[in-house]
Amino acid sequence: MSCCVLQITGLIFGAVGMLGTLAATAMPQWRVSAHVEANLVVFESVWEGLWMDCISQLGLRLQCKLYDSVLALPPPLEALRALMCLAVLLAVGAFLVAIVGVKYSQPSKERPQNVSPFILVAGVAFLLAGGLALVPVSWAGGSIVRDFYDPVVPAPLKRELGAALYVGWASGALLLAAGAMYC
């Protein structure tokens, strides 16, 4: 019975981690403008994501623009995109395999510990997806913190950690927890 509870809990963690990884990939709030000067009135906020930049003016009007060219993107941004897309694909695949594994590992009277091989595959896939999600989020977070404390970077170009990074960290942790439960 505890095996079934662990599998269902892992499936729930995996589903929430998968959806969170997808949300973090799509969100434009990876890097948000930092207001480090003495200005009390801030007229606009800048959000930078993997796919677009957004500008919020006085909190009333939001304008977002997709990046024009994939070839014009800086290589770190291309790498972050690729890793997050791989993490999403792997998380979706792990979730689907986990559903099949839970369905086919129902205990019976003949075999009370009937565990499907899909369960182990789902666990490894969740662990890989969690690691793949944590790498780009941590990489982006580290570069934001490094640039924030760099005295060479002008104050208007300094950025803070955005909500997408926190969603990514939580999602990566949930995917790792789901993988650990299945393994």
UniProtKB/TrEMBL annotation:
Q: Among its keywords, does the record have rRNA-binding?
A: no
Say if the entry is tagged with keyword Transmembrane: yes
Query: Record's Gene Ontology CC terms?
Result: bicellular tight junction; plasma membrane
How this chain sits in the membrane, per its record, is: Multi-pass membrane protein
Q: Where are the transmembrane segments?
A: 79-102, 114-141, 161-182
> Where is the protein situated, by its record's location annotation?
Cell junction, Tight junction; Cell membrane
For this chain, one GO molecular function annotation is: structural molecule activity
Highest taxon in the source lineage: Eukaryota
Which Gene3D superfamilies does the protein's record reference? 1.20.140.150
Q: Which UniProt keywords apply?
A: Cell junction, Cell membrane, Membrane, Tight junction, Transmembrane, Transmembrane helix
- Just give the chief location class: other
Which Pfam families does this chain map to?
A: PMP22_Claudin
Locate the coiled-coil region(s) and give their ranges: none
- Record's InterPro entries? Claudin, Claudin_CS, PMP22/EMP/MP20/Claudin
Q: What protein family does this chain belong to? A: Belongs to the claudin family.
PANTHER family annotated for this entry? CLAUDIN
* Reported function: Claudins function as major constituents of the tight junction complexes that regulate the permeability of epithelia.
This protein is called Claudin
- Give the organism, scientific name: Melospiza melodia (Song sparrow)
Q: Which gene encodes it?
A: Cldn8
